[in-house]
TrEMBL record:
Cofactor: a divalent metal cation
UniProtKB keywords: Hydrolase, Metal-binding, Nuclease, Nucleus
Protein name from the UniProt record: DDE Tnp4 domain-containing protein
Family: Belongs to the HARBI1 family.
Gene assigned in the entry: LOC130465908
Localization per Swiss-Prot or TrEMBL: Nucleus
Organism: Spinacia oleracea
Domain DDE Tnp4: 40-201
Length: 271
């Protein structure tokens, strides 16, 4: 990551001391997710590579892609972007390599804080995933309320984590160059991807009203159609194999808190 990208693709609160306003001011998430600092996810972007490299870059879409790992905050600002992994690489493998390689400078959560990640990622301390084999994506709950405590947790987790899907959606809708990258070297194509993310942040931070952000800010449930939300089944299986239990108590405590909040709300309505 160079120049503008390095300077602007980073957390505004690098020590993560403050609770994000999007959590503080929303009873769906406060106090349950008060220690959450953002979300992580990966997205595939088509890339042009030599014929001998096409097989290892071929992603789930069947075309050569680069698998981009990103983190964002709840204001839809990218706080980290890593572009360069082949499209055939699993999200879980990219994630584990990134958080274990200090030279990649991933903004790790401090003790007690965590990112949200979907079921394609292994659960590690500081990274909270949903319950497996349980409805998760917001589209699955349209017209059907969650049943049971696990679905209640998953819906809240999915709703809060949608910030990364929304950020990716705006990014791809705005920068048409990401749909057809020029025939530059893979290194330069990855630089274009990072530069696009940096410009996304620059526009978001400016005081000039932007049509793309205006549309998405008006509807907190809107996810641009550019985003593919279903995790690859192989990635999910790999993530489950690699998961550990550090965050199980955190997830269970949040689930209990959500259930207590629902019961309290029902009691107030009855009285």
């Amino acid at each position: 990551m160079d120049g503008l990208s390095r300077d602007i693709l980073r957390p505004r609160d690098p020590e993560f001391k403050e609770i994000p306003s999007q959590i503080v001011n929303d009873t769906r998430y406060m106090p349950h997710f008060k220690d959450c600092i953002g979300a992580i996810d990966g997205t595939h972007i088509d890339i042009i590579v030599s014929e001998e490299d096409q097989l290892r870059y071929r992603g789930r879409k069947g075309t050569p892609t680069v698998n981009v790992l990103a983190a964002c905050d709840f204001d839809l600002l990218f706080t980290y972007v890593l572009s360069g992994w082949e499209g055939s690489a699993h999200d879980s493998g990219i994630f584990l390599d990134t958080i274990s390689n200090s030279s990649l400078n991933f903004p790790k959560p401090p003790a007690g804080k965590y990112y949200l990640a979907d079921k394609g990622y292994p659960q590690r301390e500081g990274y909270l995933t949903p319950y497996h084999k349980t409805r998760y994506h917001q589209s699955e709950f349209r017209g059907a309320n969650p049943r049971g405590e696990r679905e209640i947790f998953n819906r809240a987790h999915s709703s809060l984590r949608s910030c990364i899907e929304r950020a990716f959606g705006i990014l791809k809708a705005r920068w048409k160059i990401l749909k057809e990258l020029p025939m530059y070297s893979p290194q330069d194509q990855n630089r274009i991807i990072c530069a696009s993310c940096a410009l996304h942040n620059y526009i978001r931070r400016s005081n000039i009203p932007d049509p793309a952000f205006v549309i998405i800010d008006r509807d907190p449930n809107f996810i641009p159609p550019e985003v593919q939300v279903n995790a690859d089944s192989n990635s999910v299986q790999e993530a489950r194999r690699l998961s550990t239990n550090e965050m199980t108590k955190v997830r269970n405590d949040i689930t209990t808190s959500l259930m207590e909040s629902r019961r309290s709300t029902r009691r107030r309505r009855i009285s």
